[in-house]
User: Fold this.
Amino acid sequence: MTSPHLPNDRVPDDRQWGAFTESGPWALDRSNIGWMPLVDGLRSAARAEVPALTTPRRLPPGARVVTVARQIGGAIVPWFAKKKRGRYTDPADSRADVSRRLRHAVETLGPTYIKLGQIISSGEGLFPAELVEQFKLCRDQVPAEPFSTVRVTVEQDLGARIEDVFEWFDEKALAAASIAQVHAARLRTGEDVVVKVQRPNVASLVRKDLTVMAWIAPHLVGRIPIAALANPPALVELFAETIVEELDFRLEAANMLDVAAMLRDLNQDGYVVPRPHPRLVTRRVLVMERVSGFNFDDVAGMKDAGIDTEGVIRTGMIAFMEGAMIHGIFHGDLHGGNLFVLPDGRTALLDFGIVARLSNERRLAFLRLMLSATTNDITGQMAALRDLGALPRDTDLAAVIRDLRLDQATIDPTTLTGEQMVAEVQRVVKALLGYGARLPKELMLYVKNMVFLDGAISRLAPDLDILAEVANISMTFAQRHGERLGRELGVDPNAVQFDMSSVKASLGLEADVDRMTYKELQARRDLIQKRMREHVTR
Assistant:
């Protein structure tokens, strides 16, 4: 095998176009990557498959429906019976028990449902804390496949014995998740790598499960407010689009290159992307550069190493927003297991199975949403949400603003009782449903990532002044991209006046509040949630 290895004292040429490490094990020449010419066709084929998988059938799709119902029912029914008999003295114990039962059911059902659990695990603030904590165990604590199985997959896809390609190959997995597991290894040519290996038969099982989900999803519409707003059929479609592409690692490798190129174009030096191997990437095997660093939750380790954890968060927020709004592309599955903080404070992005790609129309809608939010243009925000697909095209925006009382002074929710807060939530949800509101696919991924970053702030930068940071990010964005904003949105960037009123309103703050640390914001949220829980459980 020919080695693409470069001497460590030479800066790889690929850093001119991609956000890669300085001393890579090889340099990537985009015109000479073995698997690259196949990517466009593979991506088109994967997208073409989605409608067939997500179109609901008239009849239940086979015995898999029975299996799923048995496992989920087996988790929920005993819990419900205990709850009815008053066996739980504390609501938190009830939530913890059902969350644990659901996690066991998910793990039993296999890769597709484990992946769903992983997505829920990133939804701190969107889902009950107990459910999030249980499903975090689905990230990298899923039982690994035996090495004998891994060997067969690697040798079949690479067309050679493991010993002919690798100097050594760790038989114990570094981590194991729903679709694949990863192993440390060293190539015969001397490069330290990580090898991602797909689980056997996962592709056929995922496709069966998607047909089951597509059959169930329409029955959830309108049954509960949260499910209606989340748009279950769209959730299934989004899930299908992402997981079908995840089943071919050549698409993931191409995503790595696209995100690396986007970060370099934006001069985002705070992020690096591991290099995929230019030859050793197949449908089920992905060999990539090995990077190491601090776990994203290892705050003490980072601080001991002198890393500015507030800077890590700041870079993440700016890069994520810029990727979506300037290039229409962003990593769609941020969570602690997909991020390493390097000793120099940069962050390595991992696992590119889910990468969101916005059409130009939706990218511009995101831009308008950001601009409207920072200038307190309520009508502009509603129009941008409509253009993103959150509201029907013919929606009367003035009526929405009036019914949601967005044109009225902000009410501090901490001044309300639990009963008043629950009533207000129900009023807003009812109004949104009346207008046919839905959470579109791209917005789902964006919100999920924002929720993750919100939770990361609580660990890495609890004393960060949220209001000052939002203002700083807005100004940075305007300075870097003001000319483009003017050209694409038809506005004069010099005439834009930033107004923090809508930002404060979204946080439930009065207009005269000038400073709010994340720690203080979280205390407010905890108080609000406590009052609402106490009212609901009375």
About this structure: The two ends are 69 Å apart (CA to CA). The first strand starts at residue 166 and ends at 169. Residues 5-9, 224-228 have pLDDT under 50 and may be disordered.
